[in-house]
Amino acid sequence: MVDGFLRVATVSDNSDQLRLAVESMHSCRATLVQTVPIREAFQGQPVWEGVVHVFDLEGHPKATRAYAWSSPVKGSKKRRFFAVLQLGAIKSPVDAVRAAIVAEHRTNKNAERSEQ
């Protein structure tokens, strides 16, 4: 878990598996509401492109919605799964993707520092 909202696992990218992963990781019931294509750029350069699955949550103590997607794991046939809860500043699929990008960047930066 990173900053209390990002969870990572390995699953394939279909809606049922994403739903099951969200339910398992957040101990609540998830219902797919929609899928949203997202293309996120930084300084005019694309940094992420994909489809975010939007789930309504039932039984979660704090969140009523989650945003989920997966990305390929480099050098593998597996996928990395992201599930971001709609909490605080996270109010949309775009916010969720941006938060995950920032969290991943921070994680990579901290890993580089610890290697030095």
Describe the secondary-structure layout.
Layout: E1 6-10, H1 15-26, E2 29-42, E3 45-58, E4 65-72, E5 79-85, H2 93-115
Antiparallel strand pairs: 1-5, 2-3, 3-4, 4-5
Helical residues, percent: 25-40%
Shape summary: globular
Helices and strands, in N-to-C order?
EHEEEEH
How many distinct domains? 1
- What is the typical, i.e. mean, pLDDT? 84
Helix-strand category: alpha+beta
Instruction: Going across the biggest sheet, name each strand in turn.
Output: 1-5-4-3-2
Count of extended strands: 5
Q: Count of helical segments? A: 2
Characterize the main sheet: 5 strands, antiparallel
Oligomer designation: single chain
Give structural notes.
This protein is an alpha+beta fold. The chain has one domain (6-115). Helix content is 30%, strand content 41%. It is built from 2 helices and 5 strands, in the order βαββββα. It has helices at residues 15-26, 93-115; strands at residues 6-10, 29-42, 45-58, 65-72, 79-85. Strand 3 and strand 4 (65-72) form a beta hairpin. The protein starts with 5 loop residues before the first strand and ends with a helix. The model is unreliable at 1-13 (pLDDT under 50).
